[in-house]
Design goal:
By secondary structure, the chain is an alpha/beta fold. It is built from 21 helices and six strands. The protein has two domains: 294 residues, no CATH class; 158 residues, no CATH class.
């Protein structure tokens, strides 16, 4: 890089910092100075800042925007005062898949902070089971999403297909798997910085420890875990849940991997009321922090909304008859625009027929809900009921029946037979049952025993999980 180029970049960085400081309140500027001191202590002094990396899990809410902009201001401020400054790893968190509106917002935010062209900043996003550089228009391949698709379908068919459980606490394991990939590639000292209040951090740790106790594997010691090992263990549990019929190699309690600090800065950046000038600079984040629980702001709610709306139409169809429209495409253009934000179904190449089948979960429990599902949606297959059961038992049957099972469910015959006979070993079975009882905010969901009679009649073989207030 030439001297002229370096001088031009330094000028741009100075302009970005001045712009940020102009839009920060006096209280936020004071908090930033305290944040700089805290980061220097965590890094081990000014001389160690060049090897210090901060991992930020970035959502589409106001608190995430506040944290990232303050860290950026701190990074540029240190760069003006010291030979080196810390590096940023920004992990865009929008599981299970980011909508176009969320990607647009992140693009605007990163451009405002001039992050994409700074070698001290690495922008990452989750693409299926992999970490890739952030892009407004990511190059997607269907093969990258096959493990995510299979994990979603298997989990739903084994646990009743309730939307809140499908896109619930299981996503936290996927997030841990992504963080584990960051740890594997990390060089130097890595620290996770968070705005989560203490109560939410303790709640999350309690949930993690409960997961580890349910795993009941040698080498897992939930009372004496460091954060890096906890992430590796949760990533292993993600593999267990994603492929419940296969045995996954348990993690070893090794100190060879990268260490991870946790730096909580909620006490420094708790801005009430919100810093409106800074929000306007960052083009107004999509989700207010108070609209979602703190543990849920890093997850995509559009896909969950889409599944809920489809489930409501399924209930209406069961109550009012077969004339109720079930399609995912709404009638009004405004609703169509809202639905278009959910790109998960397009990424996974799931059809409307497969989603309806997933919400019913008719194959679990040796096909307990299969008759009612066939009567309601595929009456032409009633004559083939004996063959369907034979196929699910692994016996010979016509090829047309096998093709229909695969097409209707989206699962392979091997996976369908595992669901039909619940051929799931331990600890996968305990984990699946536990994860199905928590939503994305780790709140308890109502079980099938707590549902009303009408709800149970409307969705045979499935549980409509509602928030336990």
């Amino acid at each position: 890089m030439s001297n002229i180029h370096e001088e031009a970049l330094e000028y741009v960085y100075t302009q970005v910092l001045d712009h940020l400081m102009e839009h920060m309140s006096q209280a936020l500027r004071a908090s930033m100075q305290l944040l700089i001191q805290r980061l220097m202590v965590a890094a081990g002094g000014v001389d160690c800042l060049g090897q210090f990396q901060l991992l930020v899990i970035h959502g589409a809410d106001r608190d995430s925007a506040l944290l990232l902009s303050t860290l950026r201001a701190a990074q540029l401020t240190i760069a003006q005062r010291a030979p080196q400054t810390f590096r940023l790893k920004v992990l865009v968190a929008s599981l299970p898949a980011a909508s176009e509106a969320v990607l647009d917002y992140h693009e605007r935010c990163f451009s405002t902070l001039f992050l994409q062209d700074d070698p001290r900043v690495e922008l990452l996003m989750i693409q299926g089971q992999h970490l890739v550089p952030f892009s407004r228009r990511p190059q997607t391949q269907h093969a990258d999403w096959i493990p995510t698709r299979d994990a979603l379908l298997l989990f739903g068919h084994l646990n009743g297909g309730a939307p809140e459980a499908l896109l619930g606490s299981r996503l936290h394991l996927q997030m841990a798997s992504a963080c584990n990939q960051v740890l594997s590639d990390a060089q130097g000292v890595l620290a996770l910085i968070t705005l989560l209040p203490p109560r939410q951090r303790y709640r999350y740790l309690a949930w993690c420890r409960r997961c580890l106790r349910l795993a009941d594997e040698p080498g897992l010691h939930p009372l004496s875990l460091d954060i890096a090992y906890l992430i590796r263990a949760l990533a292993w549990l993600h593999d267990v849940v994603a492929t419940p019929s296969q045995a996954a190699l348990a993690p070893t309690d090794s100190s060879d991997g990268a260490s991870l600090q946790v730096i909580a800065v909620g006490d420094l950046l708790d801005q009430k009321p919100a810093d409106l000038e800074l929000e306007r600079l960052l083009k107004a984040p999509l989700v207010a922090a108070e609209c979602l629980p703190p543990l849920a702001v890093c997850f995509e709610v559009d896909a969950l909304t889409q599944l809920r709306q489809l489930r409501e139409r399924i209930v209406q169809r069961r109550v009012k008859g077969a004339n109720v429209r079930l399609g995912l495409k709404p009638r009004t253009e405004q609703a169509a625009d809202e639905m278009a934000q959910a790109r998960l179904m397009q990424m996974l190449e799931l059809t409307e027929k497969q989603l309806i089948c997933l919400l019913h979960a008719p194959f679990a429990g040796h096909g307990a809900g299969l008759v009612s599902f066939i009567e309601c949606y595929h009456p032409g297959m009633l004559v083939a009921m004996p063959y369907l059961h034979r196929a699910l038992l692994g016996k010979t049957c016509p090829d047309g029946v096998l093709h229909w099972l695969v097409e209707a469910s989206g699962l392979s015959l091997v996976q369908l037979r595992a669901v039909y006979g619940r051929q799931v070993g331990q600890p996968a079975r305990r984990m699946l049952e536990y994860l199905a009882r928590r939503d994305m905010a780790l709140c308890l969901l109502r079980s099938a025993d707590e549902l009303t009679t009408t709800d149970q009649e409307c969705l045979p073989g499935s549980a409509i999980c509602m928030y336990n207030q």
